[in-house]
Structure formats: structure tokens, C-alpha cells
Amino acid sequence: MRVLTPDGAAMTTLRTIKDAHTTEKLATRTDLSAEATRDIAASLTSLLADVFALYLKTKNFHWHMSDRHFRDYHLLLDEQGDQIFAMTDPIAERARKIGGTTLRSISDISRRQRILDNDADYVTPRDMLAELRDDNQQLGFRMRQVHALCDEHRDIASASLLENWIDETERRTWFLFEMTRGGSDDGG
Ligand SMILES: [Fe+2]
What we know:
There is one protein chain. Helices cover about 70% and strands about 5% of the residues. Helix 2 crosses helix 4. The model is unreliable at about 1-20 (pLDDT under 50). The chain has one domain: Ferritin, core subunit, four-helix bundle (Ferritin, Up-down Bundle), CATH 1.20.1260. Strands 1-2 form a two-stranded antiparallel ribbon. The chain is mainly alpha-helical. The structure holds fe (ii) ion. Fe (ii) ion binds next to loops.
């Protein structure tokens, strides 16, 4: 909704006023520039949406795994799900520590996520592993992009956390890649 300022010369929106007020209330002290805070927090929040999407997909496949390698795959995806979930709180808190805001809800995640959901009734074990392999690889690529942005603004702490998460993401991708070599239908 657009409103007139007192002198009638300039126009602004109630939405802008509300956002500015809210942002001010949630501002955290930082020596980073306003631009750095805005850009890094936005990148971290998009990354967080991807991490939640990948977490739920990993658990979805953990729950719906089938066939003769069930135990191995079921346990591997549980392990990977725990590792992915462990990133969520630190990512959100980095955004808040530098004065930004972060995710609010499941619908907020769905608006931002770039890793796609898989709601299929049945997915073969091999397709599950291959999809997670590609998703983890994509996540690693996004993490490197956020890392480059953090480097640009000298946000060393976010960059440092990302370095470990990139390593963990590459490990998950490596395992999933090795398990999908050969192309048989059962993932072996
Ligand atoms: Fe479980």
C-alpha cells in the first residue's frame, strides 16, 4: 500500500516502514557493513533452506528405503541426515550474529529452496542414492559461493564454518558417488 509523506512530495510504502522498523529491532552489533550483513545473511538463509530441504529428503529416503541393501543404506542415510541437521542451527545463528534475520517457517523454506523435493510414491534405492549424490554436490557448490561472498566481506567466522561443512558435504557426495558406480538397479 502506498502512502504520501507529510510534504506530499515523496511516496513510500507501509510495508517498507514495517520492514525497516522490524529490522532495526532485530539488528545485532557488528563491524561488518550494512551491505555485507544484508548479502551474507540472505545467502546464508538461502543455504539454510537448501540444507533443510536436503535433510528432509535424506530422511524421506532413509524412511522409504527398500530391498536387499536396506540395512546399509538405511543406516548411511541416518548418519548423513544427522550431519546435515547439525548445520542448521549454526547457519541460522551466523545470520543473526552479523545482524541479519533468517528462516521463519516451512513455507519460508519452500519459497527459497533450490534443492528440489521428491514426493514420489516409490523411488528405487539407486535413484535415491544418485539423487542425494547430485543434491549434495549442488549444496557444496552453493557453499563455495557463500564462502566467496564471506571472503569478500572478511566474514572469517562464517567462512571458517563453511570450510568444515564443505568437507562434510564432499564426504557425503563421495560415499554416494562410490555407491552408485556401476549402474545396477539396486544401488550395488
Ligand atoms: Fe531412523
